[in-house]
């Protein structure tokens, strides 16, 4: 999606629609995540055979795209 006078480095280059996916955003308000947080989350997802398609992390957040069609 481009307008006039917009450089491509700041432009949206693609938009994708994928069915049967959900975004799960986990946020720890006011502090960093504990050291075992990721291990705990992914152990729980593995135990329930949840397929994770995409992962995004920061100091206090974890976002996952879960593919419902793989369950």
Amount of beta strand: 25-35%
Compute the gyration radius: what is it?
A: 16 Å
Spatial strand arrangement across the major sheet: 1-3-2
Uncertain spans: none
Q: Mean pLDDT, nearest integer?
A: 80
**Helical segment count:** 1
Structural class: alpha+beta
Brief descriptors of the model:
28% strand, three-stranded antiparallel β-sheet, 71 residues, alpha+beta, single chain, flat
Describe this structure in words.
- There is one protein chain.
- The protein is of the alpha+beta class and 71 residues long.
- 15% of the residues lie in helices and 28% in strands.
- The chain has 1 helix and 3 strands; from the N terminus they run E-H-E-E.
- The chain has one helix spanning 37-47, and strands spanning 21-27, 52-57, 61-67.
- Strands 1-3-2 form a 3-stranded antiparallel beta sheet, with no helix packed on it.
- A hairpin with a 3-residue loop joins strand 2 (52-57) and strand 3 (61-67).
- The longest helix is centred in the middle third of the chain and has 11 residues, at 37-47.
- The radius of gyration is 16 Å and the shape is flat.
- The protein starts with 20 loop residues before the first strand and ends with a strand.
